[in-house]
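Entry
Fold in token form

___
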Amino acid sequence: MTGQAYPDLLVISVDPPGEESASVTLSSGTAEIAAFCHPCCLDAGQRIPNRLTVLDTRLLQPPYCDDWPEDEREELGRDRLVRKRRHEYVGTGTVIDADDGLVAVCGFVIDFGSLPSVRHVEFDIVRLDCDGGDLPG
């Protein structure tokens, strides 16, 4: 991973609260996202580790070819995270650890499981998930 630190995420809301499965709104301090959470033991105001996971993707590839001019590669590699539906996102992020499948985008660290050794990837996430903490009991 790069030397950059990625702070914990802030839980903004849990919907519905107290249920086993929930949609959790998280803030990186730069942006907010909604992630699926199951099992979910999170509460608003709580902080969780900055590592989201992907259930499935429709697209995961470099946004440019290696022989393109550097200014075009930088432009196409800029952070972008757009919500399509409830837990679906498209965007572009920076690969911070290809071996571990980690991408940084808008202050979030997303685990794709497997990545090519490139600087940037564009993606289309079917469902973004977060760790729901430990179940009581």
Remarks:
- The chain has one helix and ten strands.
